[in-house]
Amino acid sequence: MREAYESGIDVSVIVQDGLIEAMNIIGPKMASGEMFVPEVLLSAETMRAGLEVVKPYLSAGDVSTLGKVVIGTVEGDLHDIGKNMVAMMLESSGFEVVNLGTDITPEDFLKAVEENKPDIVGLSALLTTTMQAMRKTVTLLKEKTSNVKIMVGGAPVNDAFAREIGADGYAPDAAGAVQLAKQLMA
Amino acid sequence: MLIVGEKINSSLKGVTEAVKSRDAEFVRNLAIMQTEAGADYIDVNCGTLIDEEVEALPWLVKTVQEAVDRPCCIDSPNPAALSAALRVHKGKALINSITAEKERYDAILPLVREYGAGIVALVMDDEHGMPKDAGTRIEIGWRLIERLLKDGVPIGDIYIDPLVQPISTNGNMGVIVLETIKGIKDAYPDVHFMCGLSNVSFGLPKRALLNSTFIALCMMAGLDGAIINPGNRRMMSVIRAAEALLNKDKYTVNYLKAYRSGVLE
């Protein structure tokens, strides 16, 4: 990174074509089974370390964000591994991510949407019992907000369930979530 | 090693449809297959059918016990569904599960006592959720055991679940489980353990290799029960071998039995 900067390459090019572009290769490779979760984490760590190097030289506008995502695990559910993977992949792909954590009530999702004004909200649930909390959250957000897109995921969730509860999209894994988020922004 | 057969779970392919249509033959076959493969308990879980779990869970218990002479591991966080299933269960059931979370504990404990069931206890509480370190898990385990003992549950009826999570997203997750088992076993030698293992290998290739290696390590630490697919020959072979190596199988009777029936690989 330092070498690239010192050789006079524009920082926005380093970030966009070096870091983010590299992460764009990782997602599909993970989806196709050529790369595995620990390698994806290592890649994201590497990207973070790379960003630290050029951070002092970055100015506003050098890096354009693909959109803003508020993400969290729904009420009653403490599982965060899948949700954090999605957050990390979105971030590495150029989205701005606000990660609310786990056990987030529908009301707190609504509050976070009002405060952060995201383009997309991501809801995660791992338990069959918390799928109902996901439904409640989608219903509340659709009723009280406009324009914000909702994507859902988690082991018991599928495309049919996502449609039934009124979400805008479902993705089966972190790489799929990045693709879906890009589609929702288009 | 107590083997709980995991196949009758509505989150597995085909089971939801079978439970919805009350396809008894399908359920009976799964019960028979798992019993023949060495299951001591048959797990029943229909949590994905939220609206009808209260009717479907007892139906599963009855259907399983008509087909095989095995108790069930009744797998639900829903007290109403558990209660309905326990009412029709024959023999000593295993309830999966209780935690140190106040609401969950207060809802499940009366059922454990009323039916004299065994209880799977997850090392979770309200303050920590699923703790990310062994020390906290051990402490919650100790507290949960003390509480259950005080509430009249015999130590031999308690099965601690150390919470198996993927090593792919946190490299320490395997070690945390081993330390948790050991830390609780050291303090309470008569308590049992019970957990699913396949989570450990999420996100990595050749998961069967990781799962079966992990179960051997867990058995070394003190694990004496697992929720697995008993039809998985590799897993069953490693369990029989580890039991023999750890002197949990006197005169290697079970190991040799498995050998003669052609199960070992």
Mean pLDDT of chain B: 96
Number of strands of chain B: 9
Q: CATH topology of the largest domain in chain B, what is it called?
A: TIM Barrel
Number of domains of chain B: 2
- CATH architecture heading of the largest domain in chain B: Alpha-Beta Barrel
| Biggest sheet features of chain A | 5 strands, parallel
Calculate the terminal CA-CA distance of chain A, rounded to whole Å: 31 Å
The biggest beta sheet of chain B is recorded as: 9 strands, parallel
Textual characterization of the structure:
The complex is a heterodimer of chains A (186) and B (265). Chain A is α/β, with parallel strands linked by helices. Chain A has eight helices and five strands. Chain A has two domains: 2-57, no CATH class; 68-185, Cobalamin-binding domain (Rossmann fold). Chain A has helices at residues 2-6, 11-31, 37-54, 81-92, 106-116, 131-144, 159-164, 174-185; strands at residues 68-73, 96-99, 120-124, 149-153, 169-170. By secondary structure, chain B is α/β, with parallel strands linked by helices. Chain B is built from ten helices and nine strands. In chain B, helix 6 links the parallel strand 5 (118-122) and strand 6. The interface between A and B is medium-sized, with 19 and 19 residues.
